[in-house]
Amino acid sequence: MGFLSRHRKRIAVIVAALYGFYLVSLGLVVPALVKHVAPQELEALLNRDVTLEKFRFNPFTLAVTAENVVIESHGDTPLFQFERFHANFELSSLWRRSLHFKAIELVGPQGAIEQLSKGKFDIDDLLALADSEDETEDTTDEEVAIPAFSVDKLSIEEAGFQITDHSRQGSPRLHITPVSFDIEHLSTQPTDEGSNRYEFHAVGPGGGSLTWLGQLTFAPLAVEGTLALENLALSPFADFFNEFVAAELESGELSLSNKYRFSYDDEVRLTLSDGNLTLSNITLLDGLGHEEENTLLQLNALNLEGFALDTIESKIYAKNLTLDTPQVLADLTEDGKINWLEAVSPIEHTVPESADADADADADADADADADKQTLTDNEAQASATTDSDTADESTDTGSSTEETAPKEQAIPSSDPLKEDNSPSAESPNWQLITEQFHLKEGSLKLNDNSNADAGTITIEPINLSVKNIHWPSDNAMEIALALGFASGGNLIIDAEGTLEPTAFTGNIILSNFLLEPLNPWVSEQMPLQLDSGVAFIEQAFEVALDAEDEVHFTAKGRAQVDDLSLREVDKRTIAAWQSVAVEDTEFVLEQQQIRLGKVLLNGVNSSLTLAQDGSSWLDIFTGDSSNSTEASTEDSTETQDWRVIINEIELQNNQLTYHDGTLNPAFRISLDKLNGKLTNIDTAGKQQSTFDFNARVDGNAPLAIKGKGYLLDEPLNIEVTTKLDDYEMTRLSPFTGSFLGYLTDSGQLSIDSQLQIENNLLDTSTKILAKRFYLGDKAESEEAISAPIKLGLSVLRDRRENINLPVKAAGDLADPSVSVSKIILNTFTNILVRAATSPFSVLMGLGGDSEQEYLPFAPGTTQLSADSQAMVATLAQALNDRPKLRLTLTGSAAMPDQEAMATNLVGDDILGRQWEGLTQALDDNKFHKKVLKAWEKLENQPPLTGDEREQSEAAFKQLVQAKMQHLDESALLTLANYRADQLKALLVDEHGLDGSRITVANSVISNDEEAGVKLEMSDR
């Protein structure tokens, strides 16, 4: 009994001693050793300073506590730190055969990461170290068993995370705190229902909370639960990205709730269900200020309801997506850039690093490289020692080139299904996007165009968009309904339905009551014109599709109309106005590049063209240097097809066209009033023959009719036109007659009947011009006036009824750019008028007999008119009778042929007397031979005669004539000339009934010309 007592006491002492040793070693020695050794080992491993303020181990409760642990970084903020870590291990683990903790608590953990430069972080060396350790691990095909581990409660309190980016100006920083996490009954082994439940709570840096609830299982690995964000402020997160883009998120909140499940058995699967997301009170600025004009977007709410996702089914689903009252402001800057693109475009920033930082980074990199080389060497040595000969042979068969260039780890097949799915050879799943309804409610878009001097603004509100049954990719039918209004006036409605796969839609577009006046800033930018009024209407049914080659096929059919339009030059008069222009049966085919218009109705159109004093007009905006455009069009013609426009019919009703020419003084004005008619078959391809029939009133009175047919847009041009104008008041032509004739128009009425034909660009026109009682009045000073007696020319052309009838024929080649129809006709008319003024006799005789003479010829030495001359006198008399205001001056003339003829007649009379009939007849008379030789003998110093009797008589007679000519004086010739003029006047008065007072005989003259007779000169009373 005593022995047993002593033995027990000894055992008790030993146990007490061991227990005391246990208490001392674990309660005092181990904490001191850990506090001293652990920081050193961590510093050597992490290459960073590590501090541990307190470390305690309670040998009674098996609780471990560490306080104020700090792992420094290479920057200004510690890499990781926490206030307190506490773990309570239970001895029950011995019979549970697993590590079991009653509680694990971590209080105040704070992590920080710093980006030193673009793509470089302060933890890069730690990541490299982790990679090298992974490479040293032996990878096998066996599953890694999850160690048995359990804890009644795992909690993290007051956690925080911070990231700082030194690569950008200002070193922006994002700090998320507080964060809390709780999980109860965590176990890596199968547990009862309700175990491994966790809770994660976090508060956003600017407000709002995150709640993450769920349950975790490890065999198989699965996580499921709910995730909820409530009113999470987004602006603190946006501040972190402000250096990347100019845009600034001033305000915004995010709320989110959904169920989730993540599982990893044979494959990875993530599902989300019952999801709802709301973005509210979004205000996005352009980064240039906080005023209203700097606001890019204001969004009341974005609601995503019934959101779901399944990675196995590759499907994303949303029951409803709604945008509530989005307000978008877009500015086009002076340099033509849109402020949205400027605001969201990436901004590059470069922050130079210090030399010390570079040196430290290089040193760290060298140290990491050396460690990697050493680890790789050890691994290779171990692998070479354990590799059998079969493996070596197999490696040899794979080829030395592959073995040398490919990293060794690539030869090890991956067992990770995620990596296998993401390999280049893996086929990516076809994801489906399904949304039952999308709504945009009461939106607005304000566009400010500051790219031109007159800034323009268009405000579109409200905007309502509804899209139903979005399913992509799918051939399920979807519906689209868009309705928007313009603040300035007008509405646009688009209804469509179709499929996304293949892409094909049909629908209708209706634009109603759209006011054109707000478009003035853009109109005036392109041309100096201004819209004072106008309302547009458009109705179109369209079809659009995208084929397998991604080519767009688009067709549209419908009608369009513009009412009450008024267009004018800036600060000037109106150049076009109309009651209505309607286009029926429009057809637009993109694939054929064709536009077809069934009928164009122009009703009440009032258009005007005004030439300024310098000849400029609003038409100049459509002209310019055509050389470059011609070259460009030549180059593009080989690549692009010209658009074809076909118009079946153009109808004009009660229109007016006005032309005002300010280059003339006074200015000229002409108008076509009550213009009506039709033009059919217009084709820019020139493949249809057009017909046209127009009628109008020129200046409100003179009827005008134009009819014709032809290929108007064909090349070469082929057309036939008939034009008829009746009784146009010519006093309106004073600006033209004053400028080009030198006189204003006093009176007159103009009628024109013209037949014009153009065949293969060759013009042939026949025009009858009738000018009734056309008289010129006061003289007008003009440097362009024709230097000719124009009034005389008009009198020459004017008949007894005071009318001027001119048949004008003209021809020319219109292929010559300098030639035009109007220029050809005008030049022809001008030539006739000038010719009548400068050569009136030629014109008068030409009207009757195509004569070009201004002399009325007489036979040499006689006063007798030939039959042709008498016919010319009759024509002249008729012309003068028809032109009672013309006066005629007759000037007799004699010339050298008259002198010889007179001498011949005088010698003949001296020899034969009344029997003289001429030399030819006289030479046949023998008596003449004797008489002429006898008279010849009386001549002094006469040359001898030769030949037979007839030849001697002829030579003797000519010598006698030459002698007689020497004795004739001018008075004899003048007497002959006077007698000719008197004879002609008597003929005109006595036989043709002209008033003698209209004919004046001027003093006769002796002419040096070979021809002689009576010169005719015309004058006007």
How would you characterize this protein structure?
The chain has 1021 residues and is α+β, with helices and mostly antiparallel strands. The protein has 21 helices and 38 strands. It has a 34-stranded mixed β-sheet that branches. Strand 27 and strand 28 form a beta hairpin. Helix 3 packs parallel to helix 6. The longest helix is centred in the N-terminal third of the chain and has 45 residues.
* Total strand segments: 38
The helical percent reads 25-40%
The span between the termini is 182 Å
Q: Per DSSP, what share of the residues sits in E-state strands of 2 or more residues?
A: 35-45%
Could you give a short account of the major beta sheet? 34 strands, mixed
- Secondary structure tally, helices: 21
Nearest-angstrom radius of gyration? 57 Å
- Judged by helices, strands and strand pairing, the structural class is alpha+beta
Low-confidence stretches are 351-361, 371-426, 625-638, 848-852
Shape: rod-shaped
Average pLDDT confidence is 78
Topology:
Elements: H1 2-46, E1 50-58, E2 63-71, E3 80-89, H2 93-96, E4 99-107, E5 110-117, E6 120-121, H3 124-136, E7 149-165, E8 173-187, E9 197-203, E10 209-218, E11 221-233, H4 235-240, E12 248-264, E13 268-285, E14 295-310, E15 315-324, E16 327-332, H5 339-344, H6 355-386, H7 389-397, H8 400-405, H9 417-421, E17 432-449, E18 456-472, E19 478-486, E20 491-500, E21 503-515, H10 520-526, E22 529-546, E23 552-569, E24 574-589, E25 594-603, E26 606-611, H11 626-637, E27 644-661, E28 668-683, E29 690-698, E30 702-711, E31 718-729, H12 734-740, E32 743-759, E33 762-779, H13 790-797, E34 803-813, H14 821-838, H15 840-849, E35 855-857, H16 867-882, E36 886-894, H17 896-912, H18 919-922, H19 926-937, H20 949-965, H21 970-991, E37 999-1006, E38 1013-1020
Parallel strand pairs: 4-7, 5-7, 15-17, 16-17, 25-27, 26-27, 36-37
Antiparallel strand pairs: 1-2, 2-3, 3-4, 3-5, 5-6, 7-8, 8-9, 9-10, 10-11, 11-12, 12-13, 13-14, 14-15, 14-16, 17-18, 18-19, 19-20, 20-21, 21-22, 22-23, 23-24, 24-25, 24-26, 27-28, 28-29, 29-30, 30-31, 31-32, 32-33, 33-34, 35-38, 36-38
